[in-house]
Design goal:
The protein is mainly α and 256 residues long. The chain has one domain. The protein contains 9 helices and 2 strands, in the order H-H-H-H-H-H-E-E-H-H-H. It has a two-stranded antiparallel ribbon with strand order 1-2. Helix 2 runs antiparallel to helix 3, helix 6 packs across helix 8 and helix 7 crosses helix 8. It is globular.
Length: 256
């Protein structure tokens, strides 16, 4: 019952934010979610403590803000900042190059996709945001029920023993079909385009789920946190979206 109640509350809050918040407020919400997810990322990846954790949180928020505002960033500047960050971590904070690299991945993994999600809202309105999220939910639900009904062969037994190839196939088929049918009705364009972007979104969503599962398994954790009763942490709820969002965002950029 707790899982159901918290799930309903979480879904209602997310839906209200998408439908009613103006873009500046939505950016603030996205940054808040990014901070929570970054805190959990630190827990599962063991990437930062103390000053390093503050640097990671600041970088995640900066990435979220820049991407949500559609600002152009000089890639050379990003490279310089990245090298400087690693140098500070290794030379002054006593971190290993591996630890610094894991921390440096945080903004790309969390901040950039969440900023892109706000960019999708700005470009397509709430319909585009909900189309993306609904596609991931349909795929995830189809994976669960297809796996329970037909699942025999494990998809990635060393990462997530309960996931099956049959479940993944069901998720890919139904998630892609949903995007293929719903996309052209909301945004008139070639249905074939929506087929390909739907396929990319659901496949990357599965990869995102497995990626976070690998992080947790390596850390010996079941959930990224206990923030959401019955559901784990923020990272547990958005793991598939973090990989799926960039595909949808880049599709929008390419299609003009």
């Amino acid at each position: 019952m707790i899982r159901v109640i918290s799930g309903v509350v979480l879904a209602a809050a997310a839906l209200a934010a998408i439908l009613f918040l103006p873009l500046p407020a939505l950016r603030i919400v996205a940054c808040g979610v990014a901070i929570l997810a970054a805190h959990e990322y630190v827990r599962v990846a063991g990437s930062a403590t103390g000053v390093s954790q503050v640097l990671l949180a600041a970088a995640v928020v900066a990435a979220c803000v820049f991407m949500s505002a559609g600002l152009d960033v000089d890639p050379v500047l990003i490279a310089v900042v990245g090298f400087a960050w690693v140098a500070v971590e290794v030379l002054f904070l006593g971190r290993t190059v591996h630890q610094a690299g894991v921390a440096l991945f945080g903004p790309l993994y969390i901040g950039v996709p969440l900023g892109m999600l706000v960019g999708i809202q700005e470009r397509l309105g709430w319909q585009g945001t909900l189309l993306l999220i609904a596609t991931v939910i349909v795929s995830d639900s189809a994976q669960y029920y297809s796996g329970r009904t037909f699942g025999r062969r494990p998809l990635a037994p060393s990462i997530s023993p309960k996931k099956t190839i049959e479940g993944a196939v069901g998720g890919v088929l139904l998630g892609t079909l949903f995007m293929f049918l719903a996309g052209p009705r909301l945004f008139p364009s070639s249905g074939l385009q929506w087929l390909w972007v739907g396929l990319a979104v659901v496949v990357l969503g599965i990869c995102g789920d497995l990626f976070e599962s690998r992080l947790k398994r390596t850390a010996g954790l079941k959930d990224s946190s206990t923030l959401i009763p019955g559901h784990g942490g923020v990272l547990d709820r958005i793991d598939a979206l973090l990989f799926a969002i960039p595909a949808f965002y880049l599709f929008l950029r390419a299609s003009g």
